[in-house]
Design a protein that fits this description.
- With 293 residues, the chain is mostly helical.
- The chain has helices spanning 5-22, 26-30, 32-52, 56-59, 61-85, 97-109, 111-124, 140-159, 162-165, 169-187, 192-197, 202-224, 252-270, 276-279; strands at 88-91, 228-231, 240-241, 244-245.
- The chain has one domain.
- Helix content is 67%, strand content 4%.
- The strands form 2 sheets. A two-stranded antiparallel ribbon has the order 1-2. A two-stranded antiparallel ribbon has the order 3-4.
- Helix 5 packs across helix 6 (97-109).
- The protein is globular, with a radius of gyration of 19 Å.
């Protein structure tokens, strides 16, 4: 199937945004990060259309809209954590509160589709389909233990004194994986732990790769923007690549898994079942991953 028109729109939007951002045209300088990610998502969806014969945005626009809203809601949770751990802050934001909130919501909405579409595209090339480990013995008791670990990771940073919480970004970045994925496994939903029982690590690896790709793009585009985030991590601050301490890029890998678990959890609760690719008879195993079931 041909590359969708919206993909060319994405390429054009990204090029235009880059040029006008460097010329310091206010709108493009301030909103460059969400503009770039909107362009990237349009490009990814058109690329997936080319690979699978379907457009995620075109086939299920309401579900895609839910993904955007859920992305904002979930990142708002992490912003609440940051009030406690104080690991990043924002500079160059519009003084007008309405304009600032628009920028927040727009940028936060692109997080889920950026990560999930990137992973889906990697799956379409079967890059990790041959990567397997031996079947793992993961009992219901094991899942309950991991759920307890997730509970500790997600609640702990909120209970300890702020000077300790400042060092606890890692538990926040992995906690919801251990909290949500075991629940999905026990309930019969899409679960990475259940995949691991079969020795299947392909989706886990594609998410790791997606996290790194998106992490590099986030930091690259953020670096040049007028309105951007700056890190205040209390350790491993150097060397840096853009605004991010180099070691911090590893954090994007579990964060991508966390996004996937959040989306699967919402999909399971909504009863959405198979993804677009499975419904359309997608050609690759990757087309079965995004719907959450």
């Amino acid at each position: 199937m041909r590359f969708g028109v919206h993909g060319w729109v994405g390429i054009g939007l990204l090029a235009l945004s880059e040029v006008l951002m460097f010329r310091r045209i206010w709108f493009f300088a301030v909103y460059f990060t969400p503009l770039a990610w909107t362009a990237y998502i349009l490009l990814l969806d058109a690329w997936l259309q080319r690979r699978h014969g379907y457009s995620w945005i075109g086939r299920h626009p309401l579900r895609f809209a839910a993904m955007l809203l859920f992305s904002v809601a979930v990142w708002a949770v992490f912003e609440v954590y940051n009030l406690r751990i104080r690991n990043w802050y924002y500079v160059g934001l519009p003084r007008n509160l309405t304009l600032r909130l628009i920028g927040y919501a727009w940028a936060f909405a692109t997080i889920f589709p950026g990560i999930l579409f990137t992973s889906e595209l990697l799956d379409s090339y079967n890059l990790f389909s041959r990567w397997r480990v031996g079947p793992q013995r993961i009992s219901e008791r094991t899942l309950l233990i991991w759920f307890g670990v997730g509970l500790l990771c997600t609640i702990g940073p909120l209970l300890v004194p702020p000077e300790i919480a400042h060092y606890l970004i890692a538990p926040v970045w992995v906690g919801y994986v251990f909290l949500l994925d075991p629940v999905l496994g026990l309930a019969g939903g899409e679960s990475l732990f259940v995949r691991l029982r079969r020795g299947d690590v392909s989706k886990l690896l594609s998410l790791f790769a997606s996290g790194l790709i998106c992490g590099i793009l986030w930091e690259f585009w953020n670096y040049w923007a007028q309105a951007k985030w700056v890190y205040a991590v209390p350790y491993l601050q150097k060397p840096k690549l853009f605004e991010m301490p180099l070691a911090g890029f590893l954090g994007f890998m579990p964060f991508a898994v966390e996004v996937y678990c959040f989306w699967n959890f919402l999909s399971y609760l909504a009863g959405w079942g198979p993804s677009v690719g499975a419904e359309e008879g997608g050609r690759t195993s990757g087309s079965r991953h995004m719907g959450g079931g």
